[in-house]
Sequence to fold (296 residues):
Amino acid sequence: SPSPPRQASPTSLEHLGRGTRTNIYAGTLSCREEEEDGGNVQYSTREMRVVLKILDSAHRDISLPFFETASMMRQVCHKHIVLLHGVCVRNLENIMVEEVVEFGALDLFMHRKSEHLSTAWKFLVAKQLASALSYLEDKNLVHGNVCTKNILLARQGLDGDSGPFIKLSDPGVPITVLSREERVERIPWIAPECMDDTKNLSIATDKWGFGTTLWSVCYNGELPLKDRSLAEKERFYEAHCKMTPPVCCKELAELMQQCMNYNPPERPFFRAIMRDINRLQEQNIVYEDQPRAEID
Ligand code: ATP
Ligand code: MG
Fold:
């Protein structure tokens, strides 16, 4: 169960990276456990490796939205979603304590291993992400920051038999606290309807993010529109432009296009997306490896 260990206090050890207004550390959590032994209560301490996501102390003004994210994460329990152990406040720092996902962010992993990624591997990533998002859809929970850097890899799955195993990370600080410029930077991950008004954030927003993620996965973790200026990114949405569909896998390209529909109600349900992906797998389409596409 995701309830926090009692009397836990985390220690941060190694800096893993910076996020949006956060710093991420690997650390340990000492959990004091009570054991009944023939009427005697015994205490023992267990050390657990954890990830600490610490909100910058300069951004204490957004502690509340930060903890709203944590509260959303506390409501979920799914094998493809990162487990939040709990939250804590240490001096002036607000911290989310999460499970360690061994191989880190998917985008970096895909850059490192781009030669080894098969279509079948990418299909499994898509399927697992769709199952996590379908679970959130059923619970009426919005993630709000679906992108390849927020997908973590628990198993690499490059040796053929087992396949990859992903976990969707928490969304971090909600987009409602971001500046307009920060939102423009997130184009094309952030859904177009959230550009003018972040109140438009909804389950449909995550479908757009899922579409962008599919694009990136098909292109081995490439960042979409990475060479475009902020003004160009804005124009991209204003003109209702579309991403070039990947040719490596036309079935995923099709799904991507359905999800990246400028009209939110027209985006498919994750249930339907899962059904499509399962059907394609049954037809064995995914196990034939096609040559990788060049990006134009
Ligand atoms: P954002 O809200 O922008 O996503 P963030 O605070 O979540 O910001 P990220 O950029 O997503 O920060 O994560 C920073 C780095 O920390 C990632 O590249 C990843 O390598 C590492 N990381 C984050 N969470 C975990 C985890 N649970 N296990 C292992 N590594 C992690
Ligand atoms: Mg993140």
Notes: The pocket of magnesium ion (ligand 2) is lined by residues 19, 150, 169, 172 (CB under 6 Å).
